[in-house]
Amino acid sequence: MATLKKTQSDTPTPGDSYVQSFARGLQVIRSFSEKTPRQTLSDVAAATGLTRAGARRILLTLQTLGYVAFDGKLFMLTPRILDLGFAYLSSMPIWNRAEPVMEALVQQVQESCSAAVLDDTDIVYVLRVPTHKIMRISLGVGSRLPAWCTSMGRLLLSELDEPALRGRLAASDIEALTRHTITDIDALVAKVQQARRQRWCVVNQELEEGLISIAAPIVDRSGRMVAALNISGQANRTSAKVMQETMLPSLLAAADEISRLL
């Protein structure tokens, strides 16, 4: 099963402009996850590599600011933490205008639709209109998936030149997630290059057994790809070939419409 993972740019080399205490605060926030929604002080210290005293200072600061709650034993994030993520979305009103386009696409194809951007070795979901639950992992705004084995990720990686692409793949945790997963670097580069040529990408059961997705680019006025749009479906309901033949034209049209909104 595919797992959500954190970005790999968590430990940059400190410099004159690097605020270590702020970085440690973000590290503490990221230690909370679906698997660890409630943690003791010792849990947070172990997960972040901080001392108990250092983790305690950060947690109490976050509690004072309203981002963390404490029940006397366990710490947990509060809904206020969403302000940090939604600041990004509110700074890009394009996604408010894109949502009706995606909803219309979902109604047309009867499959889930998502939009994502590239962040280091991951894609990050910025909008999602689901239909049926087709994945074993829960996806929503802010969810991360590895770029190298997802349709939106491979398409977004196609904006990189080959040295940068190979560097990004080398930094990724590449492993066989299913029996269909491509793990060879040269083969992955070829897949990304194919996505670059055709301006769309399909991934057939590489991230999760039974899951097929197809992606199209969202571009700005200069033609630079800034995000990707995809449709996800189940292999036992729709084959990759049928998805390409029957849904890709609608997906490309929706991506073009969102691109024009930029």
In words, what does this structure look like?
This is IclR family transcriptional regulator. It comes from Variovorax defluvii. Strand 8 (211-219) and strand 9 form a beta hairpin. The protein folds into 2 domains: 20-78, Arc Repressor Mutant, subunit A, CATH 1.10.10.10; 92-261, Beta-Lactamase, CATH 3.30.450. The longest helix is centred in the middle third of the chain and has 16 residues, at 94-109. The relative contact order is 0.12. Mean pLDDT is 89; it is low at 1-11. It has helices at residues 20-30, 41-48, 52-65, 82-90, 94-109, 151-157, 162-170, 185-198, 240-246, 248-261; strands at residues 38-39, 68-70, 75-77, 112-119, 122-129, 144-146, 201-204, 211-219, 225-234. The strands form 2 sheets. A 6-stranded antiparallel beta sheet has the order 6-5-4-9-8-7, with helices on both faces. Strands 1-3-2 form a 3-stranded antiparallel beta sheet. The chain is globular. 42% of the residues lie in helices and 19% in strands. With 262 residues, it is α+β, with helices and mostly antiparallel strands.
